[in-house]
Amino acid sequence: MLSMNNDKDRMRYILIGILCTGFLCVIIALCLQLRGDAVGEEIAVDELLQQYWQEQQVATIDEQATDVTASAPGINSGTESELDSSSVSVTEAADSLNEEKIESTNAVMAEDDAGKIDINRATAEQLQQLKGIGPSKAKAIIDDREHKGSFHSIEDIKRVKGIGEKLYAGIKESIVANP
């Protein structure tokens, strides 16, 4: 055993112990960093929630793909490549249904508004087809729409400088303001 005869030797051993402990802590920290542990890493709650919801959506699509493969005749369920192609099919089918709903809604609106110009979506060229609307007024309508937001009714077009009651009376049968 080591004998500690005086205070000077005792202090040396204490300092050596402290240095060894510090050195050991540095080595442990380097090992953890090299290993890739996320010790002390903070992750925002919204990132965690977003990650969770993405995983849930993927799980839902996978479940739908499994249901499709299980119920579809002629498909051998269980192989991963078939499940992947089925999940693509489910996604494509959902997109197709959404497009059909949009098209049917647009068709109903088009029947009511056949031949009318939507002042919320029309280009300058389309607006110029209206009686009394030239390039400068078409630009004014588009600028107003961009700065103040869409027109809620066709009468809102009167808020555009240069469009008064007389001009409005001439174009009101030719325009719509779809949201």
Q: Kindly state the mean pLDDT as a whole number? A: 74
The rough form would be described as elongated
Number of structural units classed as domains:
3
- What radius of gyration results from the CA coordinates? 35 Å
Our count of helices gives: 6
Strand numbers in spatial order across the main sheet: 1-2
Helix/sheet category:
mainly alpha
% residues in beta strands: under 5%
Largest sheet: 2 strands, parallel
Number of β-strand runs: 2
Distance between the termini: 90 Å
Task: Please trace the helix and strand order, writing H or E for each element.
Answer: HHHEHHHE
Give helix % range.
55-70%
Unreliable segments of 5+ consecutive residues:
107-111
Report on the architecture of this protein:
By secondary structure, this protein is mainly α. It has 3 domains: 1-39, no CATH class; 48-112; 117-176, DNA polymerase, domain 1, CATH 1.10.150.320. The protein has helices spanning 7-35, 45-71, 80-112, 124-127, 135-148, 165-171; strands at 117-118, 175-176. A two-stranded parallel sheet has the order 1-2. The longest helix is centred in the middle third of the chain and has 33 residues, at 80-112. The protein is elongated and about 110 Å long. The chain starts with 6 loop residues before the first helix and ends with a strand. The relative contact order is 0.06. Residues 107-111 have low confidence and may be disordered.
